[in-house]
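tool_call: predict_structure(chain=1)
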Amino acid sequence: MEKVDRRIVKSRQAIQTTFLQMLVKEGFDEITVRNITEQANLGRKTFYLHYVDKYDLLDKIVDDHIAQMRKISDQKKDLGILEGSILWFSYVEQHKPFFAALFKSKHASAFRSKLLLFTTGEIDNKIHEGSHPLIDKTIFLKFLATATMGVLESYVLQEIDSDIEDVAKQVVQLFEKLIN
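tool_result:
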């Protein structure tokens, strides 16, 4: 296994930590590479050795979150749909400031697309091929995934005043009614 230079790891951590702090405090649209490097106490050249721009940085962080959510999905396969959904929703709860900042951003559409693609795939794994033969599967998946994301977004932006387990339970109940 190839050993990664500690300086590379430290630089990436400093950039990502600073970016995430700024994301929550100021919002994605207000962040500049210059601000990141100044607050992280790094040169702009160091930033550009690791990332193309702030969108590339965001993509890498979003990819890391999707990878973590995928791990949770793999772990929850042995659980029922309710218990698994609570795990998945709890992950969003644990990273609520991050998700809230991205849902509020006008320019973080890649985040939404990746999360929607991930959610669609997870729902696709749960529905049976023969269920709802009168409905186009693509439309059905898109409907369920966007509905789930809408609920998550409303929760993260504090438009829903329930705890995460109640939200997950209600989403699962709706999901089960629609697929049965």
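agent: The chain has a mean pLDDT of 87. Proceeding to next step.
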